[in-house]
Amino acid sequence: MARAEHRRLRRGDRLVIATHNAGKLSEIADLLAPFDLVLVSAGELGLPEPAETGSSFAENATLKALAAARGAGLPALADDSGIGFAALKGAPGVHTADWAVLPDGSRDFGVAMALARARLGEAADKRAWFTCCLALAWPDGVVETFEGRVDGQWTWPPRGARGFGYDPMFVPDGERETFGEMEPARKHAISHRARAFALLSARLRQGGA
Ligand code: IMP
């Protein structure tokens, strides 16, 4: 039986980044820079995007990473992430990206944020959080997952043109700026993705990358 802890990624190894989202791809490339891996995107390889049918971030990250690893015959890393609002009992959660889909199939996160705002109404509970689950998969089916979360509050109107997705309406705890206003380096230090990456990085260091 293949075991995750025996898997290694070494400097110069190729790693497929199983995302078609340019915003995520550039954040992931920044976070993985210290490992000197050769990153190839699933888009570049023409790999199809599997349907995200899981009911948790971990299930969706796993199915995306496994599909890419099997399709490319290389190790693959996928991320599944989203925002949750306490007043909406954690919604949209795994459906975060769906809230941005327009009738023509394109995505607009201004629309998604307005939808969230409308559903939140006058709720007094402003708590919100981003979650990120990373899955590292190998072509033979071995998978490991790493989950990170950042807590904060939602704000309206949205502020800032940096970042992507719901960044302009999220203020992390202990900060004044939204993720959309913040220096990217600051976001990368405290974000849900950074926390999941810290766990992955510890694993890569232990595994030899
Ligand atoms: P998925 O992981 O591709 O299903 O998409 C999750 C969605 O969550 C993204 O399209 C973004 O809208 C949102 N999201 C995930 N991470 C972030 C973030 O760091 N900032 C803002 N929005 C995010």
Give a verbal description of the structure:
This protein is α/β, with parallel strands linked by helices. The chain has one domain (4-206): Alpha-Beta Complex (Maf protein), CATH 3.90.950.10. The chain contains five helices and six strands. A six-stranded mixed β-sheet has the order 2-1-3-4-5-6. The two termini are 23 Å apart. The model has no long low-confidence stretch (mean pLDDT 92). The structure holds inosinic acid. Inosinic acid (IMP) binds next to β3.
List keywords for this structure.
alpha/beta, binds inosinic acid, about 210 residues
Q: Give the overall silhouette.
A: globular
H/E element order? EHEHEHEEEHH
Beta strand count: 6
Tell me about the biggest sheet?
6 strands, mixed
What is the CATH class designation? Alpha Beta
Number of domains: 1
CATH topology: Maf protein
Query: How much helicity do the residues have?
Result: 25-40%
Measure the end-to-end span.
23 Å
* Residue windows where pLDDT falls under 50 for at least 5 positions: none
Radius of gyration (Å): 17 Å
Instruction: Name every ligand kind in the structure.
Output: inosinic acid
Overall residue-averaged pLDDT value: 92
Report the total helices.
Answer: 5
